[in-house]
Amino acid sequence: MQQADYIKEIAKYGLENDQEKLLFTLNELIEHSKQSRKVNFALQLQSILKDAIRQQETKGILRHGSSKHSIREEDREVADFILEKLTSDYRLSHLVCSSEVRENLDYFVQEHRSLDILQKYELPISNKVLFYGPSGCGKTLAAYVLAGELEKMMIVINLGAIVSSKLGETSKNLAKIFRRAATEDCIIFMDEFDTLGKVRDYSQDHGEMKRVVNTILQLFDYLPQSSIVIAATNQQDMIDDALLRRFDLSVQLDLPTEAQIKELIDKTLKDSSFTFDNPNKAKRIMKDSIGLSYYSIQKTLLTAIKRSLLAQKPPFVKAQQRIQTEIWANLIAQERHHLL
Ligand SMILES: Nc1ncnc2c1ncn2[C@@H]1O[C@H](COP(=O)(O)OP(=O)(O)OP(=O)(O)O)[C@@H](O)[C@H]1O
Ligand SMILES: [Mg+2]
C-alpha cells in the first residue's frame, strides 16, 4: 500500500468511529513510513498516537470516577515545562567543528546505536552530554544533530519556566518529565542550562532552588542507561560544579578557525547557484571574519546574497547569481564593530 492508501483508510475508519481498525492502520502507516525512510514522520505519528492513548486512559479513569484525577493535572503541569517536542533532520554533516568534536559525537551516536552489545558486556553507556562555548557556535544545532542521527524525539525543557514557576512543585514536575521521556524513549534537552545557576545566585528562595539542583543531580544519577540528556550553555561557569561533574561527555564548541569559516561558507552555498563575484576578496573577508561566530558569519552571508539579488536588474538568470563581496565585506565589518 502507498501512503495515500493508508490515509484514505484512516479517514474512513475515523469517520466510522472504528477505533480498532483505525489504530491498526495507523500502526501500519508508522511501520510503512519507517521503512520508506520517513523516520521523522513516523516518530511524529507515534507521538500523536501515544498522546492520544494517554489522554484516553485519563478520560477513562475520570469517567469511572477514579481518584486518579491527578493524571490529567500532571499532564497540564508538565506541559508548562516543555518548550517543544520535536524531531530533527539534522545530521553530523551539517555541523562544522573540529575533528575531535566530530569524533566524540560520532562515538556517542555509535554507542547508542549499539546499546545491546555494550549492555551485554555490562559496560556503562554515556548518556549525559554538555555542549558549552560562545553564542552562535552550534550548541543548539549539535543537540538537533544528535536527535537527528539517533532518530529520536526530543523534548526541549523550558528551564526558564521551571525556575520562575512557583517552586514548590518544580522538583516533582521535573521528575515527571524525566520519567515520561524514559518511557517514550525521547531525548531530554535542557538548553540555556545556566538558567539554573543564575537563579541559585539571585533568587531569594535559595533553599528551593537548591532543591531543584539536587533533584536534577538525582535524576541524572538514576537516569536509565538508554535515556539521553543533553544540556547546553554559554556560561559554563554559572553551573554548579556538582552538576558539571555528572556529564559523561562535555563538548566545547568554539568560534570558527579560518578553515572552519571556509567550510561553513562552502556548506551554506552548496546546492545553490550563488558564487562570489570576486573569489579572492571573499577569501580575504573569511580571514577578516575570524573572531565572529558561525551564526554571525552565516547570517551576514545570507543578507549579502539577498541584497546582491535585490541590487540586480531583471531578468534574473538563475545560472549566474553573483554575491557582491563588497556588500558582504561591509556587513562583516559591522558585525566586528558590534563586538568592540
Ligand atoms: N558549528 C556550526 N556549524 C554549522 N552551522 C552553525 C554552527 N554554529 C552555528 N551555526 C549556524 O548558526 C545557527 C545558530 O547556532 P546555534 O543556535 O546552534 O548556536 P548556539 O551555540 O546554541 O548559540 P546560543 O548560545 O546563543 O544559544 C545554527 O542554526 C546554524 O545555522
Ligand atoms: Mg543555543
UniProtKB/TrEMBL annotation:
It comes from Rhabdobacter roseus. Residues 125-257 form the AAA+ ATPase domain. Transmembrane segments: none annotated. This is SpoVK/Ycf46/Vps4 family AAA+-type ATPase. GO terms for molecular function: ATP binding; ATP hydrolysis activity. Signal peptide: none annotated. SUPFAM superfamilies: P-loop containing nucleoside triphosphate hydrolases (SSF52540). It comes from the Bacteria.
